[in-house]
Amino acid sequence: NESSHADYVFQYKVNRLLFAGSEEAEKKLTGIVLIHPIGVGIGRWYYDRLLDELRTRVRDLSSDVLVLVPDLLASGSASEPKVDGNTVNKLPLFQVSDWSQQVMQLMRNEEIESVREVEWCIVSNGGCVPIALDIAREYAESNHIFRGELKQLVLSATPRLSGLLRDSPPSKKVNKAYKTLCGITGRLFWWYALRRNGKFIQKFSERNLAADPSNLGENWTPQCVETASSAPKTRFSTFAFLAGALQMDCKPSFAAVRNKLKIDLIVGGDNRRNPAKSWFWQRRKSVSPSIDTSLADLLSKNGNRGREIIVGGRRCPAHEDAAGFADAVMDLLQS
Question: Phi and psi at residue 327, in whole multiples of 5°?
Fold first, then answer.
């Protein structure tokens, strides 16, 4: 697939799987877009376990199912753009809108190629939840984005509600942090993360992401190291994340989708939260004391409340408990 940003043209890979529903199914087409989290070496492979589990479940649905899993810009295969046909050494600072536009363009391209109208469901994990909410805002504000219908969002391992409702960080501060990370600071961090076969990645993932280290599996760290080593420019998506580019004020998104869209939640059974940190891992100074509600409560008040399903895992439930996550997604699609 292809996407462009300013003068940058990206070619990237998409896992595209079309599953047939039951033989008696009304031949509708349900489209599921899986948005992977951003981190060192993370890409579309994050959902490989989930795709394996989905294969055995979709035959019972009343529609055919199309699953799209793209590498987000500056992740995986989407890290070697060209400008005027030439490769570049540094990637620009991406914002939430850049990733949401990439995903929406992919969905539109799929609709053009399909002879059937698609009912879309977007699944997003962790820090990339603002991307899904931004797509929902675009859809709610314009009925012409897709030929089909955006039926629901499924958000998993969501950030703190206070983080979703906090004002976006000052652009100057994000740009300064990104510039610093693109220098010697970032090069040292990248070297440290990958040294000794990714020992830092393994320890960080065990401490901050997984409910149990065994949930990660034997291939988690090797896959992170392989992706980050073979595609070193993927570091720029991680730097954007660390600089605060995904810390977007989502209040406009919630306002736009009010009473218009069902939003479901999939929650890891291990609800330990990581310490909230901002640029360069500094602790946030304050959290608004007026924000004392949960995301589920906000969705109820906003007319978007779907269902909340608890599965295994902590911050990476689609990987940690792929079977439970697949059951949850199928359940939500049929509800």
Answer: -60, -40
